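Minutes, project huddle
Topic: does the predicted pose make sense with coenzyme A bound?
PN asked that the exact inputs be recorded in the minutes so nobody has to dig through chat later. Recorded below.
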Amino acid sequence: MNYENILTVSQNGLTTITINRPSKLNALNKVTIEELHNAFDAADKDAETKVIIITGAGDKAFVAGADISEFANFSVENGGKLAANGQELLFDFVENLSTPVIAAVNGFALGGGLELAMAAHFRVASDNAKMGLPEVSLGVIPGYGGTQRLPQLVGKGRAMELVMTAGMIDAKTAKDYGLVNHVVSQEELIPLAEKIASKIKRNSSVAISKAIKAVNANYKDGINGFDVEIEQFGNCFGTEDFKEGTTAFLEKRKADFPGK
Ligand code: COA
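Predicted holo structure (tokens), as shared on screen:
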């Protein structure tokens, strides 16, 4: 598929989606959000794709936020719709994908950029990365899940400080906070994400999709995560991957998962 603002490359079980508006620091406008939705959806439905990496083009930014020029004149109603549509199309959508999503944060991840990175299943960053939720400096609040996911990842006090100060933290602080798992140089960033992806690819994609559901259940209101875990654990026993995984272990060979 041809996109205006993103690039996608699929090979060896990995789909890399690159937000490609470097002149605007990859800011998320409406078209980009729609294209990202379509690209994530296509990758998730593609049986060959076992892992998705999301990153930004250029060496300066992952994503410098929602495109401010698009919402500067919005009404209360339009503002609410902007957040609701974005959350449904992209942020909640990514978090709940069956396919693991790694955010490779290669520079500024601000506002909607940090929110996108936080919607991914985990994050790695380059040492020049800068992260923050600067919305209150514009007179708004984070609207793409930032007020919910940041406290989940770094704790309430740190999240409150970051939101209230509209400040940025560097990659080292982000790692200390548990916001990103690893920090490497810019050149090493994509190779590191690919190395982690190749470890994930060796495992059962069906089991991984059920594990994502179970982990996410911990963060959903009114849902008992332990019950979801029990259900998903049980479901694994009906899969071909489970048969292959356990048989391969007992036969002392490497599993070759059918992904079913
Ligand atoms: N929305 C729209 N355009 C954006 C943008 C955003 N969130 N972030 C950056 N851009 C654009 C700039 O307007 C500029 O475009 P121009 O060259 O046509 O004027 C271009 O990207 C480069 O940005 P610039 O500000 O010149 O780069 P810088 O290195 O001086 O500053 C930042 C980098 C990230 C500190 C600065 O761009 C910034 O503060 N961006 C907004 C961050 C933000 O508030 N995000 C939350 C939005 S809710």
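Observations noted during the meeting:
- The radius of gyration is 19 Å.
- Residues 24-25, 27, 64-69, 108, 110-111, 134-135, 138 surround coenzyme A (CB under 6 Å).
No decisions taken; revisit at the next huddle.
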